[in-house]
């Protein structure tokens, strides 16, 4: 079988032939049809080194067909079309992940390969309305967006929501979930083209964050936001309390713009603004997210599809920041 190995930071991934794994105990063997890239893969590629000399197979998102099952897994699972939940060992507290929590793809072998063995608890039947390719676009970013929007920010119908950095996978899922929940949605981007695409999908308006006056324009047009879903952090995060209504909620799950400098403390307590950090989600949230997709017939936005052998081109595409939607690997 083929697998794409990460060995050290900023070095190209190596697609090599290795022995196909065998499932043990409660594991299933999934023949992967598609995988998807996330910014997490980019950060690992830029900042980490492999903990083992031979390298690590990256990848958190995947869809495929169960081909074999371990002795403690139900043999009736064989042949099922599945999507993989990459949120591993969350723990018993739904508020925060436990000490054993980790995300599929690092340090454990991930989905950039022909096959993967994984616990039967981590596989779910593929949503009927999605193709195998579309299903691979769901797990990590869909779960992250669902928890941020519903479990943390507690979205209510008709609220005004601002999604920053539209174009990335999690931002687009949050955007689509909010629209499906009848929110009034606005977006930001450094690209006017991406803003126009979001407007064509249902955004009321968008603001180019390269414009030094974008927050004033956003506040004037919207009257203030109930919720902001942010994946960037960085200096502009400090401006968000200014454009929130009293009782507003901010959920943040990324750091593409770096650490956050000074926040306007008075606005935080006077407006009673809540800031929620969030990472991935629970098994229950994953199931609820899949239910939402099926009940509202929501499909992912796909940017480009690359064969596994061209994985380094796919990484370069994500590094460029030009994508609008998920970058998918065609494996089978």
Give the key terms.
Quinone Oxidoreductase, Chain A, domain 1; Rossmann fold; 2 domains; seven-stranded mixed beta sheet; six-stranded parallel beta sheet; 18 strands; 27% strand
Brief characterization of the structure:
This protein has helices at residues 39-47, 132-136, 139-152, 169-180, 192-201, 214-222, 265-270, 283-296, 311-320; strands at residues 2-6, 14-17, 27-36, 56-57, 61-69, 81-84, 87-88, 102-103, 115-119, 123-125, 160-163, 184-189, 205-208, 225-230, 244-252, 274-277, 302-307, 326-330.
Give the secondary structure arrangement, pairings included.
Blueprint: E1 2-6, E2 14-17, E3 27-36, H1 39-47, E4 56-57, E5 61-69, E6 81-84, E7 87-88, E8 102-103, E9 115-119, E10 123-125, H2 132-136, H3 139-152, E11 160-163, H4 169-180, E12 184-189, H5 192-201, E13 205-208, H6 214-222, E14 225-230, E15 244-252, H7 265-270, E16 274-277, H8 283-296, E17 302-307, H9 311-320, E18 326-330
Parallel strand pairs: 11-12, 11-14, 12-13, 14-15, 15-16, 17-18
Antiparallel strand pairs: 1-2, 1-4, 3-5, 3-9, 3-18, 5-6, 6-10, 7-8
Structure description:
The protein is α/β, with parallel strands linked by helices. The protein has two domains: about 1-140 and about 300-330, Quinone Oxidoreductase, Chain A, domain 1, CATH 3.90.180; about 145-275, Rossmann fold, CATH 3.40.50.720. The chain is built from nine helices and 18 strands. The chain has helices spanning about 40-45, 130-135, 140-150, 170-180, 190-200, 215-220, 265-270, 285-295, 310-320, and strands at about 1-5, 15, 25-35, 55, 60-70, 80-85, 85-90, 100-105, 115-120, 125, 160-165, 185-190, 205-210, 225-230, 245-250, 275, 300-305, 325-330. Strands 3, 5, 6, 9, 10, 17 and 18 form a seven-stranded mixed beta sheet that branches. Helix 3 crosses helix 4 (about 170-180). The longest helix is centred in the middle third of the chain and has 14 residues, at about 140-150. The mean pLDDT is about 95.
